[in-house]
Amino acid sequence: MAEALHMRGLNVTMVQRSAQVMSTLDPEMGQLLNRALLHNGIDLRVNETVQGFDQKAGLAVAVTTDKQTIPADLIILGLGVTPNSDLAKDAGIPLGPKDSIQVNSMQQTETANIWAAGDCAQSYHLVSRHPVHIALGTVANKQGRIAGMNLGGRPAAFPGVVGTAITKFMDTECARTGLNEREIKALGLEYSTGLIEAHTLPRYYPGSAPISVKVLAEKGSSRLLGVQIVGGPGSAKRIDTAATALHAGFSLEEMLYLDLSYAPPFAGVWDPIVIAARMALKEG
Amino acid sequence: MAEALHMRGLNVTMVQRSAQVMSTLDPEMGQLLNRALLHNGIDLRVNETVQGFDQKAGLAVAVTTDKQTIPADLIILGLGVTPNSDLAKDAGIPLGPKDSIQVNSMQQTETANIWAAGDCAQSYHLVSRHPVHIALGTVANKQGRIAGMNLGGRPAAFPGVVGTAITKFMDTECARTGLNEREIKALGLEYSTGLIEAHTLPRYYPGSAPISVKVLAEKGSSRLLGVQIVGGPGSAKRIDTAATALHAGFSLEEMLYLDLSYAPPFAGVWDPIVIAARMALKEG
Q1: Measured CA distances, B271 to A132, B196, B198 (Å)
Q2: Contact A28, A164 (CB under 8 A)
Q3: Separation between Cα atoms, residue A216 and residue A276, nearest integer Å
Q4: Which of A162, A184, B177, B234 would you call most buried, defined as having the most Cβ atoms within 10 angstroms of its Cβ?
Q5: pTM, entire model
Q6: Hey, is the C-beta of B240 within 8 angstroms of any chain A C-beta?
Q7: Cα–Cα dist A124/A129, whole Å
Q8: Which domain holds residue B178?
Q9: CB contact, 8 Å: B267 with chain A?
Q10: pLDDT digits 0-9 by tens, A158-167
Q11: How far apart are CA B138 and CA B192, in angstroms?
Q12: Is residue B81 a part of any domain in this protein?
């Protein structure tokens, strides 16, 4: 919304309770997004909490925070996502993480002949090995397909998710897959980190843009746990390599010599994810 | 070269002995490249063999083929790549595919204390499970790193390649990984095929471009054998997902629910590689 309104020429103020936008990224990666917002003229205010609205003649005309009052013509609330699971709850169907509907890999609830799929339902996280609630269109589509096949009499199972997400603000792209530091700590795992700044293309090639990559891996086993990317055009979709590696359960060693595509219009000789994996391996 | 000269405003004629450019792609995928060349004004002549050159005052002034004589100011020969392995051969070091130097996974030749890496040396192909000669910078860099580590006293092994390559002509990108039909047939494997035309982004999103994806898999096991991509901007780098899946030895079933990144500026909900894998699974 900030991008769309900014492109329409509106003055945009963002009030963020935490220290960064994109709480799904680790702080140093989220800061890169903060910078992109500020650099593009968004008035980003972090560590500031919305407390209410000033009204005039029944219309909201200003946002009041714990620090100030911000006059506004248009106010948009982005408050997160909650599963719409009341119907299931009232029917006595067990709920899982964040009150999403508990389902097995066939998208079956605990109640016979009741199925759930999409933003209301939980998923199984292949990296944390715990149920999780991830409200994304790509997960919803897969779950819907699985539920439909089972309802139609053709048994199918959803293997689970690895927590992949992607978005952009203007020319700055970001993506993540697997677990971030907060999620890894919550599991009590010890981890090593590789964080690098590189370029999407060889620096001499037109269109080369900065890309930051962070790789997280389990200490000892060196099992890949998560990857985060923030960078210019052509950065973020590379997360799919990491997502596929997470599905495979790869260790950092198995990342080092991946036969990824190289030609100057597309990439450097060593993929930034591979370089970051090498850094994490040195540390771990 | 055709692209560079075309962009400089030169009239470019390409004489190709076979029916298509990019012999590393299957015919229907190579044809898409042929079309891109023709569409951009390259005078592409396929199934035509260069036989010699007309000279005037010691300078080549025309190319003679089995069909005609083509006057030219500048003639560039693209005749393929041959390993520069004479030194090794003369020293009695065994050679492998296409006379590349035989090495083990440590880049050691059969002769003590002699190592080889790069375009002169063979690689192990993880999909065909045979030695192969692939003269690409990305393979050479990996082999050089392995050889250097071993020479420096730190043992390291190169796991092998999956045959990934990428290039482009103007706005048309292409990439491949794994084995193509010719290579699969040479191994005597039975295979199924999934071939789809899709778009890089949802069609309503600016910059959405056509993308064709071909997936090849072993019949019976449904083991992924190869993927080829030809399409507009943003197409070809997606080959890395398939390359990583080949490293993992994934079956088509394991491709179907990969948690790949989705947001309208980056992709559709179902990745074209996944859709093509689904098609191949139906056939197989």
Answers
A1: 23, 11, 9
A2: no
A3: 9
A4: B177
A5: 0.97
A6: yes
A7: 7
A8: 165-283
A9: yes
A10: 999 999 999 9
A11: 29
A12: no
